[in-house]
Amino acid sequence: MVGLMMGWGVAAGQGRRKGPWTPEEDKLLSEYVSLHGEGRWSSVARSAGLNRSGKSCRLRWVNYLRPGLKKGQMTPQEEGIIIELHALWGNKWSTIARYLPGRTDNEIKNYWRTHFKKKAIRPSRRQERRKTDQILRQKQLQQQENDTDKVSPNSVLVNNEAEANFMYPALDEFASSWSDAAVAMEDDLWSDLWNWNADDAYVDATASAAGDRNSVALTQSQATAYSCGDNANTFYAGGYNIF
DNA sequence: AATCACTCCAACCGCTGCGTT
DNA sequence: GAACGCAGCGGTTGGAGTGAT
Fold first, then answer.
1. What Å value separates CA A165 and C1' B10?
2. How far is Cα A82 from Cα A85, in angstroms, rounded to an integer?
3. What residue ranges define each of the domains in chain A, with the CATH number in brackets?
4. Which residues, 6 or more positions from A74, have their beta carbon under 8 angstroms from its beta carbon?
5. How far apart are CA A37 and CA A145, in angstroms?
6. A60 near A29, Cβ under 8 Å?
7. I need a labelling partner for A206 at 20 to 30 A (CA). Which of A8, A116, A142, A196 fits?
8. Nearest CA to the C1' of C20 belongs to which residue?
């Protein structure tokens, strides 16, 4: 995606640059924001010597340059959180992103689109196999991380046994191999998604939130809940404390 | 080796809401 | 209260990369 995409380059009329950011532009933006802070994006564009729109600067910073961003694949926990929160709030990507430290709304939105939305139609066996392999790789990586006993302050914690069972179904309980376990777990997710009426879930959640914020009823996967890092807005097991 | 199918992801656009004048 | 500008959000696009056939 270098440079020539969609006739990008310099936008006619305003003389603003468009398209992919160069390392030099990134450097200018990073230096400026670290000195002066976020906000006032249109003046950032001018003051930092960037021939970009404020909007473009903000997007680049938020989605790519901002410190603390996580790169790499979503973990099974993050995937679970996305599914649950999407059931609650629908396409409120920025809201969902607040519960996934280091992930951006754009990233979550992209992830949802590629992994879930298209698959309202059952994925092909080929897709299923690829997905399964991906989950396996993630599990192996995660196992390695657990072995090294590294716990990030921003990591998403699994609170109790019920969660752990949802996230990591025991082999002897669900399947005879990690591969089968991953497929079984995935099937659960898909069946939830296929049976799920997004509008209903959203209405239920918002109605409950409006009335009693401590007792939002989830229509799917009710036994599952997450405590999301050090965010002040915590999402607890049992009754969902929202805000 | 070539082609196809699919995923990933950066970046755009349009719309909305909010604050300021 | 109206007009304006800006920030933020959600939807969309399309090239690059990768793996399967």
1. 36
2. 5
3. 11-65 (1.10.10.60), 76-211 (no CATH)
4. A82, A103, A111
5. 34
6. yes
7. A116
8. A126
Dist. CA A124–CA A128, nearest whole Å? 6
Task: Calculate the angstrom distance between C1' of C13 and CA of A217.
Answer: 37
Pairwise CA distance, residues A52 & A93, whole Å: 25
C-alpha distances in angstroms, A101 versus A31, A81, A137, A138, A154? Answer: 23, 12, 22, 18, 6
Which of residues 104-133 of A have CB within 7 Å of strand C? 105-106, 109-110, 113, 126, 130, 133
Helix, strand, or coil here: A205? helix
pLDDT at position A180, please?
A: 42
Give the residue from A154, A53, A54, A64 showing the smallest Cα distance to A104: A64
What percent of chain A stands above pLDDT 70? 42
pLDDT digits (tens, 9 = 90+) for A183-213: 444 445 444 444 444 334 433 443 333 333 3
User: Backbone phi, then psi, for A222, in 5-degree steps?
Assistant: -65, -25
Ranges of H-type helices in chain A: 23-36, 41-47, 54-60, 76-89, 93-97, 105-115, 125-147, 161-167, 171-174, 178-195, 198-211
In whole angstroms, what is the distance from residue A186 CA to residue A160 CA? 21
- A55 CA: nearest nucleotide by C1': C7
